[in-house]
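Async update (no meeting this week)

Hi team, since we skipped the sync, here's where things stand on the single-chain job. The sequence we agreed to prioritize is pasted below, unchanged from the tracker. I ran it this morning and attached the output directly underneath so nobody has to dig for it. Comments welcome in thread, and please keep replies under the output.
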Amino acid sequence: MKILYGVQGTGNGHIARARAMSEAFKMHNVQVDFLFSGRAPEKYFSMEAFGDYQTRRGFTFETKKGSVSYTKTALSNNLMQFFKEVTQLDLSSYDLVINDFEPVSAWAARKQKKPCIGISHQNAFRYSVPLKGANWIDKSVIEYFAPAQHHIGLHWYHYDQPILPPIIHTSSEVSDEGDFVLVYLPFEAIEDITDLLFHFNQQPFICYHPDVMESSQVENIELQPLSHGRFQHHLHRCRGVIANGGFELPSEALSLGKKLLLKPLAGQFEQQSNVATLDQLGLATSMDSLDISSVRQWLRDSHVESVTYPDVAKAIAHWVVEGDWNTQARLADKLWQQVDFPSYVSHL
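Output:
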């Protein structure tokens, strides 16, 4: 079997899932080629796991000071270029396209009538799960942005739907917990982040941000450029995580037993829904802005217990290779039976 795996490159969570899936497929006699879109080629980092991967422009969204900018998003995307990329992507040598919300490979698969399996957190919103702030445009994007014949959604709880638990990709590192808090707020201005954290001068922070080019120490804040390996090291050792409302980082933090303070990206229904879901489940604390009082209270909160998730990537890879792709509900039931939530989690 030869697979083209398309990955949405705008968020590092999609790439983290692809790393886990890449390792899982190595256990099978398959060739997996990777294609990424949504980010300038020079902006990708720590991509060794994907070999000779391809990039395309695809589609992306633009932000400004923690909010989606629809004007900048419209101006930065080129519909004619997208159609050209779809038309020129030759899938004749592939048996299957797997897609993590990546539109070029998804639409090329539809155009060339290749089987396509969509595996993404976004696919969970095709089912009856909590939504917050979703309008008809958002629902249309979920429906049409990256079409597939089989849709596998990933979420933190099943809500009696045929969706799967998160794909977790963390290193096997075992280390003692430090006293620092890990901060990853890539959609916020770095000046706004440091202004917030300076108020807690007795608390050390390690902050990763795409605008940081080299490591430096500014008062109680250690600023770090993006690096998958270093970030994983600090994620294992931190006492808590302050982040936006993506899916993969909170999933990794939950599996490691790290408390979470999440600030969703304004105007992005997925992040708003994610944060509301974790808040309702009792698995995270939320704040709508970079709020001093919210951070202060969260720092005082006690430690949390970890959520135990099975090896979802391994199970999906086996399911894909087996070829019986109409058994998604059975796969979901099997995996959710292996999930162990802390006793304080509110099951909705």
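Quick observations from my side:
The domain at 2-168+310-336 is CATH 3.40.50.2000 (Rossmann fold).
The mean pLDDT is 91.
Reply here if anything looks off.
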